[in-house]
């Protein structure tokens, strides 16, 4: 492993050096890292720093961090494969909850909404806190899959007005599920 994609508070700029640090099985795992790219995904407030997602490259593993990271990844991959195998067989052995936890992790880290607008044959998307459906596109939960959203955009482009209304209705279901999960 040569790097990671992390979500963190504050802003980071490409070229910055930082330390990634976390615990695995009671041991500290630390990497001196370089920020390769970063973007703010949720703006901050007077009381809270913005939340960013950054791609980092590991420069130096501190005190055996590389071996601990490999152990952690092997453990997670093994658990995931066991859960998928169990799920494919239709039984509840092998910790099937891990599959739903993966989906929940994605949903919880991607709060807010994505608003898609079609103008002049080109799509723009922006993160927003508004759940409103625009007249020139649609708004969905921020955790939706990018490939599915690309398919939805293509469908919207060729749809008539009634089809576009139905697409906005489907998008509204996505928004509703995000609002429901943020209150639980």
Your description of this structure?
The chain is built from 4 helices and 7 strands; from the N terminus they run ββββααβββαα. By secondary structure, it is of the alpha+beta class. It folds into 2 domains: 3-107, no CATH class; 110-183, no CATH class. The strands form 2 sheets. The protein has a 4-stranded antiparallel β-sheet. The longest helix is centred in the middle third of the chain and has 25 residues, at 65-89.
Concise account of the structure shown:
By secondary structure, this protein is an alpha+beta fold. It has four helices and seven strands.
SSE ordering: EEEEHHEEEHH
Structural class: alpha+beta
- Categorize the overall geometry: globular
Low-confidence stretches: 105-109
Biggest beta sheet attributes = 4 strands, antiparallel
* Strand-residue proportion: 25-35%
Which bin fits the share of residues in helices? 40-55%
Q: Tally the structural domains.
A: 2
Counted by DSSP, the helix tally is 4
Radius of gyration over C-alpha positions, nearest whole angstrom: 20 Å
Tally of DSSP β-strands: 7
């Amino acid at each position: 492993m040569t790097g990671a994609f992390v979500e963190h508070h504050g802003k980071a700029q490409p070229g910055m050096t930082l330390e990634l640090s976390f615990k695995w099985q009671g041991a500290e795992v630390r990497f001196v890292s370089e920020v390769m790219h970063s973007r703010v995904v949720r703006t901050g407030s007077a009381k809270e720093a913005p939340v960013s997602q950054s791609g980092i490259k590991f420069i130096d593993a501190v005190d055996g961090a590389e071996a601990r990271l490999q152990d952690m990844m092997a453990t997670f991959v093994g658990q995931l494969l066991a859960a998928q195998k169990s799920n494919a067989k239709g039984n509840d052995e092998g910790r099937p909850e891990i599959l739903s936890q993966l989906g929940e992790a994605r949903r919880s880290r991607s709060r807010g909404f994505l608003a898609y607008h079609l103008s002049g044959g080109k799509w723009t998307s922006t993160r927003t806190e508004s759940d409103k459906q625009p007249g020139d596109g649609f708004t969905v939960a921020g955790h939706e899959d990018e490939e599915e959203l690309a398919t939805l955009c293509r469908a919207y482009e060729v749809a008539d007005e009634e089809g576009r209304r139905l697409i906005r209705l489907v998008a509204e279901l996505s928004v509703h599920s995000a609002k429901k999960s943020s209150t639980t």
